[in-house]
Every structure is written in C-alpha cells, then in structure tokens.
Structure of Cystathionine beta-lyase/cystathionine gamma-synthase:
Amino acid sequence: MDISYILNELGEDRSQYFNAVSPPIVQTSNFAFDTFEELRNAFANEESAFLYSRGKNPTVDILSKKLAALDGAEDALVFNSGASAIYCSIMANVKSGDHIISIKKPYSWATRLFDNVLTRFGVETTYIDGTKIENFHEAIRPETKIIYLETPNTLTYEIQDLAAVSQLAKSLDIITIVDNSYCTPIYQKPHDFGIDLSLQSGTKYLGGHSDVLAGVLTGSKEMLKKIFNEQLLNTGSGISPFNAWLILRGLRTLPMRLEHISKSTLKVIDYLKKHPKIEKLIFPFDENFPQLELARKQMKGACGLFTIIIKATSHHQIERFTYSLKHFLVAVSWGGHESLILPQAGGLSPEDFDPTIERHRMVRIYIGFEDPEYLISDFEQALEVL
Ligand SMILES: *Cc1c(COP(=O)(O)O)cnc(C)c1O
C-alpha cells in the first residue's frame, strides 16, 4: 500500500463527519443501539463493534487502520503507552510454568515485568546476547512460549537477525515479539521477516512532539483479538480518543520528520566522531558498527538516537559537560522536536562512578528538528569545557 495513501486517506470516511478534513475526536464513553440484534452482536464481538470506548472508538479506529497498514499487518491495537503494549502482548501469551527468552537489557519496563511481576506467577525469563543466533538455539526449552526482541535497543543498538530468529521460533511454535520503537515501520518492517507481533512506543517518533503517550501493537487478527479481549479490555489500557487524534496528527509528518532528523544526525555524528575528546560513537549505520551488514539488510535507515563514550575521568566532568550544552535538554524519552542528552552518569551517584567502566561514560544523544550547525556549535563549546 502506498504510504501517501495510508497517511492521508486510509480509514478516513469524511462523508461520515461533515466532510471535515481533520477527523473528529469522538469523545464518548458509550454508543447507543437501535435494535436488540445489534446490541447482541456488539456484546459478542466487541473487537469489531462500537459498544464502549474502553474497547473500540471511531477516532482510535482510524488510527489503528493506518498503523496496521504501515506495518503491513492485518490489524493493530493502540494502547495508552508503549509499556502497556509490552505488558498486554506478553500477558496474553504466557501461563504459569512457561518460559520466555529475552534479549539482555530490553526496555526497562519489559525487564520489570519479566523480573518483578512474572516471577510471582511462575514464568521464568532467560536473558541472552541476541547478536548471535546460537544463543537463541541454546536457550530454548520445551516450555518456551515467547522470544522477546528489541532491535536496535536504545543505548548500545545491538540488533537481532529478525529473519533467522523468526524462522527458528516458527519451527517450534514460539511467539516472537519485537520492540520496533527505534526504527518505526518507516525504517523496519518486522512482519516482513516473519515476526508475529511488532510493538512500538508511539510516544517517540509517531507522536513526534513530546506531548502524548501511546503504544502500538500489530500482528494477525487472531493474535490481536486475544490480546484485545483478555488484556486491553481488562487492563483498560487502550488509548483515549484525544491522544489517538494527536498520534494521527503526528503520523501525517512522520516520513518527513524522520528524513530531516536522519540527515541532521549524520552531520552531527560526522563532527563528533572526529573529536579528540570522544572515545567512541555507537550508531547502527556507522561504518564502525559491528553489525553494520545486518543493519543494512533489515533496516532502511536509522536516525536521531546515538551514543557517545566520552573521555572523562570524573562524574563532575560529565555533569559540567552536560549542563554546558545550551540547546540540549537533559531528559528521558526521545523522538520529539527537541534535542536531548542523557548521560548514564546522571543515574549514578558520584561515589559509584567508575571511569574504567565504559558504560559509565556513555552519553545518549537525541537529535531533534534544530539546524545541525546550531547543535554542532553547541557541542563545540561544551566539549571545550570538558
Ligand atoms: C519509551 C520506550 C518504551 C515505552 O514506551 P512508553 O510509551 O514510554 O510507555 C518501550 N520501548 C522503547 C524502546 C522505548 O524507548
């Protein structure tokens, strides 16, 4: 399907709403029925009827049609955060005694679900280095139900071979789930490689303006129906009509925002890589990235987020460098209009900082919509201070 069609037309039946160009925010909790038969059908198939907005809602419906098409999937569910998309996709597919294989250090709230919640219900998780397919083979047990992936991750950008993992999983009836927040469907389409469920934090690039939280899950109608009925409705974690509308608005400009950020990121990276105070730079499309070949094979692009390892000997030095930057906000998240910086040292107390540990000197950078030259000159003066 043509991306211009998806973003501008698909799902938008304007004759239903006064030919308004922008779709309405259908701000209602419930829907009325003209006949018993219609009411009965809605009760029986809530996944395909407008009954109550904890389930389906017309504004959310427009959005989910577009998100499914962007991913080349049969269907999509939209959640009120990426974390709830993770939670519901996992919870719908495990029971006591089951086993999960996850790449090591997935998104923090996936880790907390695996380690703090699921352990109480007898579900065990094995963490592996996902850069080697052998590690998946070795970790598989008869009770393995899910392989959980995140490619690339958002600090060190290790990637997994989606085609190889999904081939292995399919042969054993194991469900594969991938967190595709870094790439979005513009740069990577996990279903093309046979992955069952693709999820994203819509809070990042899809929303794109740091003003809304959202989560997306795409896959087959059958798998999503189960997740909708067992998890989304029970946890009440569907997106609200207004937030769905904000994501719809963000989607209109998604490709051009990513294109702009991609170009700017390359310019900033080019400058930082050559700087004597920077020991290393990690970015999936960098010529020194150890998995560059695989990145090129399964990703169309990368943008915005990369990590530098700075030559610093103290916690204080990193803090001074960070706050010398005038145009980067110190904040979590990414994918919006504003450039961000998140040093690992920021989460450590000064006594725990150890410069011999590379991770402690890692600084994650996100490039927003600003002019790259504007950002480069900011780095120039802040690196001077370092
Ligand atoms: C932010 C993020 C999430 C969680 O999304 P929320 O919308 O914040 O709940 C999941 N995965 C990755 C990679 C993220 O960056």
The chain has a mean pLDDT of 98.
